[in-house]
Amino acid sequence: MRAHRGEGAVLPQRRLIAAVYVKVSASHEDLMLLPGESPPLEIAALVTNPDA
Fold it and tell me: What is the span of the domain harbouring residue 26?
């Protein structure tokens, strides 16, 4: 049985391959994300470098 969109579907976990810096506008925080980390989706969305 296949899972339909939104019904138990599991997204693949993505990991960074390079260090990146992001600024969280809501909290004005500067974050450094390291290679191998898998940040939460709301933080991952801030990464603009496609090679990271």
Answer: 13-52
